[in-house]
Amino acid sequence: MRALLARRNVVVPATVVVVVLVAVGLWAFQPWKLFTSSTINEQLVSNTNALVGKGTFRSLAHATTGQAEIVKATDGKYTVQLRDFGTSDGPAVHVWITDKPQDAGDSAFAQDGHIDLGALKATNGNQVYGIPTGTDVSKYKSVLIWCDRFAVGFGVAGLSA
Q: Is the keyword Membrane in the record (predicted)?
């Protein structure tokens, strides 16, 4: 009887620890997002006179494709357009403009010098993100798809005129 109680005193706490670790792991890594995708097709500006800079995405931690463009609308506001975009899903994935060149590493991207334009709307399609009014867009050299949770870039597009 004593051996049974001793085993129970070990098994129950160990089970609780395992369950908590699994729950935290599922929350942090969200592995189901490896198998999910979404598509959005927002209206893009196609006026080449409005184009300030553009570049093609290159993959970093996840396969990322498409074009990034900064365009100036007729009202004077700037936006980032992701054209024919595709990447993986993940937890806390955001779109940034950054003053770092496209060949900077994740540690450089994570430093100051970026503007978070918001959460990624979808893993595929055409997307538009507003740039805050008053931003000097000439300072920014690339568009970055960034995972806040793990401080890693999914893909980056260098901007050129």
A: yes
